[in-house]
Amino acid sequence: MSNINHSSTSSSTHRLIKNKNGSVKRNELRGKVVVYSCAALIIIATIAITLFLTIKGLQSFIVNGVNVGEFLTGLTWSPSGEGDVSYGAFPFIFGSFSVTFLAALFAAPLGIGSAIFMTEIAKTWGQKVLQPVIEILVGIPSVVYGLIGLTVIVPLIREHSSGIGFSLLAGMIVVGVMILPTVTSISADALKSIPQDIKDASYGLGATRWQTIYKVILPAAMPSLATAVVLGMARAFGEALAVQMVIGNSKALPESITDQAATLTSIITLSMGHTTYGSLHNNLLWSLGLILLVMSYVFIIIIRFISSRRKV
Amino acid sequence: MQASDLGKEKKEANAVSPLMDIKNLSVFYGEKEAVKNVSMPIEGNKVTAFIGPSGCGKSTLLRTINRMNDQIDSAHYKGEIMYDGVNLLDKKIDVVSLRKEIGMVFQEPNPFPKPIITNLTHALKFYRTKKSEIQGIVETALKQAALWDEVKNRLNSSAQSLSGGQQQRLCIARALALKPQVLLLDEPTSALDPISSAKVEDLIIELKKHYTIAIVTHNMEQAARISDYTTFMYNGELIEYGETSRLFTNPKEQRTEEYLTGKFS
Question: What's the pLDDT tens digit per position in B217-233?
Fold first, then answer.
């Protein structure tokens, strides 16, 4: 490498000054434009959807004069009837939240448990068998979960309870199974990212495997595990099809876990098709959609909050 | 659980036989033989240093003593490590009690991301130590690790707010809190600055009054400064073992001499 020709380079002032018209510069610009427009598109789409849903969702309150308090807390829902209309959405709000929390209650212990099994107990087996199984579970369409719930879980509940089988409980189980892979895989990633150092430290002090998992690994991974559960809940909250197939879609408030219920999503998917655009009923469905959007923002804020605490 | 009361009679026996006797030890990772047929004693209340180039098996050997290699599925052993009449590699050994008695400090300071005091009480709680005793044990361990004066007013602040050197001394204190017989130190100063390293070295010299110490180091000067016995390993084999003063001034093996004079590393 001794024969590099230094004399061919021009004076350093020329060499190092920004070249305004070079091809390198043009390439840089092209790349910049592509990347910037991708980012802009996503931001515009998010803002547009939010704005659109907000405008549509507020119309029932502004144009049709629906009382917000009555909408959020009222118990009867018959928005399309002649004459006497009532628009209490509380049963659906309650249904959505119950399904979400019950599903999380079901999926969190199972998901975190299997994540621990995968990452700490049977590492090779877990990664070879459990990981693909979970990936397959993620890929199964929600209608399939709904069908299985309809043919297996609903009859099972019918036999063992006084209800007709279509129930909050069925919704909880189906949605719980649906969000299980989400919770498991994010939890597994969280547990895998705990440094080996800390595990070694614990084992080196004569801790057993369970003591290490319980006292060191789980506390260190807690914020990420919480994020996993909240992400699962966000998915449960938005799930429509499978829930609608098993929950019974009753418009009344459920009295027990084996009662029929309805969720915000299931009411929207059931009714949106046969309402006229611009009618009160249609506008009210948009308002339900707005609640869903607000809740998804709330979930994101919760996740942000949890992960910002992790950095401390 | 033989291992938990192993140590008591040991003290008297020290004068005649070594605390620990490694006999024909080979350690394998799958097919690869990382430690090859090593035999050597580890003397009680002395510092034994393991030196040698990277990958020579010195850390593996150290981690075999308290069975940390059990974590790795493919690791298996041949030979014996005799300690107080039992073979530590025996399947019947309770590794939990063993690790309590033979403590370990790692290369990177690895305190738990918890308050300083919790780092020390963490393991004590596993052994159902009485609450009334914990305070005393914490103080003694921190004093032994020469950290007490620096942290006594902030025992409840996070261990991660300490400097690297303080963290490493905290890790040593954490091991001492369990009142071990032996301390295994795996390159304890390699991640530290010279001043912190010097403090840890002083600490090791101080600690050998009460503990038997085995230290892996890639720093030959450090081995010369703090150890009583030195083992030079190369390529998984034990090349030479002897008193540090003799080994450094008058090595018997040519490869030891070449390594010490920097002809290879």
Answer: 988 899 999 999 999 99
Q: ∠ at Cα B55 (B54, B57), nearest 5°?
A: 115
A220–B106 C-beta distance less than 8 A? no
DSSP letters, A177-194, are HHHHHHHHHHHHHHHHTS
Instruction: Using pLDDT thresholds of 50, 70 and 90, give the confidence band for residue B9.
Output: very low
Report pLDDT for A310. 59
Cβ separation A216–B98 shorter than 8 A: no
B146 Cβ neighbours under 8 A, 6+ residues apart: B169, B199, B202, B203, B206
A207: closest chain B residue by CA: B96
| Strand arrangement, sheet containing B229-234 | B86-87, B75-83, B20-29, B32-42, B237-243, B229-234, B47-51, B212-216, B182-186, B102-105
Q: What is the mean pLDDT of chain A?
A: 88
Q: Please report the residues numbered 43 through 102 in chain B whose beta carbons come closer than 8 angstroms to any beta carbon of chain A.
A: 66, 68, 71, 73, 95-101
Q: Give yes or no for a contact between B90 and B3, defined as CB atoms under 8 angstroms apart.
A: no
Q: What angle do CA B215, B219, B225 make, to 5 degrees?
A: 70
Sign of CA dihedral B87, B233, B55, B38: negative
Which member of B73, B110, B123 has the closest CB to residue A200?
B110
CB A259 within 8 A of CB A167: yes
Q: Which residues of A touch B123 (CB under 8 A)?
A: 202, 205-207
**What is the tens place of the pLDDT at every residue in B172-218?**
999 999 889 999 999 998 888 888 889 889 999 989 889 999 999 98
